[in-house]
Amino acid sequence: MAENHDKTVAVILVGGPTKGTRFRPLSLNLAKPLFPLAGLPMVHHPILACRKIPNLAHIYLIGYYEEREFALYTSALSNELKIPVRYLREEKPHGSAGGLYHFQNLLLEDDPKDILVLNCDICCSFPLSEMLASHHRYKGMGTILVKKVSPEVAREFGEIVADSETGELLHYAEKPETFVSDFINCGVYIFTPEIFLAIQDVCSARKDRATLRRLSSFEALQSATKFVQTDFVRMDQDILSPLAGKRKLYTFETKDFWEQIKVPGMSIRCSSLYLAQYRSTSSELLAKGDGKRGATIVGDVFVHPSAKTHPTAKIGPNVSISANARIGPGVRLVNCIILDDVEVKENAIIMNSIVGWKSSVGRWARVQGGGDYKAKLGITILGEDVTVEDEVVIINSVVLSHKTLSQSVQEEIIL
C-alpha cells in the first residue's frame, strides 16, 4: 500500500455556463464538458489519462455548473473507475487558480504529494506519467505542459520562455501583442501543495490593496466604492507570470497533438484526433464493418453499441455515432458527429457537420460544411430536434433547436 505522501489527486477545471456561449447551440441543453468527442464526453478523456497515474487518490471536477448537471456522470464514473470522482461547485467564478484555493481543504484531505490540474477544454494525448517523472526530477513547485507552434498560432495563447537546458520557466506572457516565444501553455499542470501558498499570497496582497483604497480620502468621495474580488485568481497572469524566473516552475514539452476546444467546429477536429489515438490505446472502441452485417467502415469510426447502421451505408473516415442513432440504407457519413437518437434516412449525405440530439435528416438530403473548424460557419451544426426534410440541402449553416427545414439554405444562422 502506498504511503500518504506518495499519493496524487487530480483536478479538472470545467468552467461554467457563462463561459460556454461560443459553444452554442451544442451547449444549450448540455454542459460543454459532457459533449461527446470520439464517443466519450469531453471531460472523460483527461479523466482516463489521470486514472493511469499510480496512487491516484481522488479526481475532482471544479466549476460553476449546477450540481445536477454532473451528478449522474460522476456517480457512474466512480463505480466504473473504482476511484472517487467528485464535482465541486463554486458559487461564483474564482478563476483557474482561485478555484483550487477555494477548495484547498478538500484537495489536501488525502495528503497528496502532487496535484494534477488540467483544463477541460483541451484535446491532447495527456502525457502525465512522463510529465510527472520530469516534475520529480525538477523538484520545483510546478511543471507546465508546453508545445511548440507557429508564431501565428502562438499569439492566441500564453507564450512561454524556458531555459533550454534546465527547463525552468523564465518568462510568461498571456496572449502578448508582440511575439515572445513559439512555445505555448497547454493548460496542463503538476503542482506540489506549495501552490496554495502562492495563491494565498496573491489573495492577501489584493486584500491589502483593497483596504488601502477604502481608507483613502479620494475613495471616500466616490459615490460608490468599487468592489474588488480578492479571491479571483488566474493561473496565468497571477501565478505563472510572477513566479517565472524564480526557480519555482518548470516546463515539459509535448510533441504530440494538442488543440483547444472553444468553438463547436473544433469538436470534429478533436474527435478525429482521439479516434486516431484509439488505434494504439483503445482499438476495441473503433468500429469494424465490411457492408455485410453492418455498414462499410472507412478509417477511424466510433459507433455506439445501441446504434443501428444499414449494411448499404458507408461511414468514415472520422465519424462518431452516439446512442440509439439510426443510419439508413445508402447513407454516406464523412467527418461528422451524430448525436443520440438521430435518424438519417435513405441516401442522405452528411459531411463536416454535427447533427444534434433527436434530429432527423430526410431521404436524399445533404448536410455539409466546408471543413474550416475555427470559422463561424465553417461546419454545419444542427441543434437538438431539427428536421431536415427530403431532398433539402444545408450548407455551412447553424440551425438552432426544434426547427423544420423544408427549403435548402447556405451560409445562414437559423434562429
TrEMBL record:
Protein known as: Uncharacterized protein
